[in-house]
Design brief:
136 residues, mainly alpha, 6 helices
Length: 136
């Protein structure tokens, strides 16, 4: 982890975000019974997976050094597989390998964005919240 002022707070927020993503992924799909929605927004599920996992990758890359990005990738891949496994278990959702592909694409985009310069953003947020004061 980067030398953050509030590492415990970042960890708690990270766990909360992952739990929210898991809960949303396990909620009944509101579009599954609507043929109108499905015809207008076909593939929105894949976009949602990709965008979600890109944002998760950026979130974690903001808190960890570049050398740990491979761990972020592996952790998010495992999390995506866990989501699909859970969706397979519940009766009202279905697991889809294309969701895993969308997750991988999102993770790749997020890690590339982090490597391009937005990684470590949490340090800047803490600096800004401290009013620009130097770290202790």
């Amino acid at each position: 982890m980067l030398p953050l002022r509030y590492p415990q707070g970042w960890r708690i927020a990270s766990v909360a975000i992952l739990l929210i993503v898991l809960m949303v992924a396990l909620m009944p799909a509101f579009w599954s019974g609507s043929s109108t929605f499905s015809s207008w927004f076909g593939g929105i599920d894949k976009w949602a997976h990709g965008i979600t996992f890109a944002l998760l990758a950026i979130w974690f890359a903001g808190q960890y050094r570049r050398q740990a990005y491979w761990r972020i990738v592996l952790g998010l891949l495992a999390f995506g597989l866990l989501i699909e496994l859970c969706q397979r278990v519940v009766g009202y959702r279905t697991a889809d390998w294309l969701d895993v592909v969308a997750n991988c694409g999102g993770i790749g985009v997020g890690i590339l964005a982090a490597a391009a310069g937005i990684g470590g953003w949490a340090l800047h947020v803490e600096y800004w919240l401290a009013g620009g004061a130097a770290r202790d």
